[in-house]
Structures are given as C-alpha cells and as structure tokens.
Amino acid sequence: RQKPFKNFQDLSNKMISIFEDANNQNKLKILNSHPDLADKTKIGSLTPDSNKEQSNAELDQCTEKEFNEFKNLNDKYKKKFGFPFIYAVKGKSKIEILTILRENAPH
C-alpha cells in the first residue's frame, strides 16, 4: 500500500502550499479555528493535543487574575489583527507565554 506522502517534510510542504494558495477568507477561517490561549471557558473542549499542550504549559492552572489578563490580551490581539494570537506553547511556562502575549498584544 502506497502512502500519500513520502515523509513528514513532504506532508508539511503540502500543508504550507495549501495554506499559501488559499484566498484570504479561507486563511482567516483556518487561523480563527485556533483556540485562544488559556481560555478558561474552552479548556475542557479542546482537542486532546491542544489540551495536552495547554495543560503542560499550566495554562489550565492560571489564577483568576491570569485568566482575566489572558482573556483581555487575547481580545485586544483579535480586535487589532482579526485572528487569535497563535504561539507554539510546547516547552513553555504560562509566565513565558503571558510575557510573549503582553509583548505582542496592542497597548
């Protein structure tokens, strides 16, 4: 049985090509399907992989103040750019992620 892709790099290249060839409306749909970081109301409904990533970064263990700051910064970012702040959280702590979001969200 033949595999649809030669290897992981081939798969990655195809995914990037599909995204780059998509029109702006479809690109926004893809970006907007990404969950907000530390969204207290959605943590239980994330995909298993997203849930694991956010849990490993302790984003599910934020204080009420941290949850509120994440929400406020996520909302500001989305309002300015039209899509959520997307960041690879693997191996990062909630404090590192919050610091990066503070630096990238509009003031």
**Biggest sheet record:** none
Low-confidence stretches: none
Gap between N and C termini, in Å?
Answer: 54 Å
Helix/strand structural class: mainly alpha
- Bulk shape: globular
Strand content: under 5%
Supply Rg.
16 Å
For this entry, what is the oligomeric state of its chains?
A: single chain
The helix-strand sequence is HHHHH
- With helices defined by DSSP (H or I, 4 residues minimum), what is the helix count? 5
**Helical amount:** 55-70%
State the total count of DSSP E strands: 0
- Average the pLDDT over all residues and give the rounded result: 90
Descriptors:
single chain, 107 residues, mainly alpha, 57% helix
Helix/strand layout:
Elements: H1 8-21, H2 24-32, H3 48-56, H4 64-81, H5 94-104
Q: Can you describe what's shown?
A:
The protein is mainly α. It has five helices and no strands. The chain has helices at 8-21, 24-32, 48-56, 64-81, 94-104. Helix 4 (64-81) runs parallel beside helix 5 (94-104). The longest helix has 18 residues, at 64-81. The radius of gyration is 16 Å and the shape is globular. The termini are far apart. The mean pLDDT is 90.
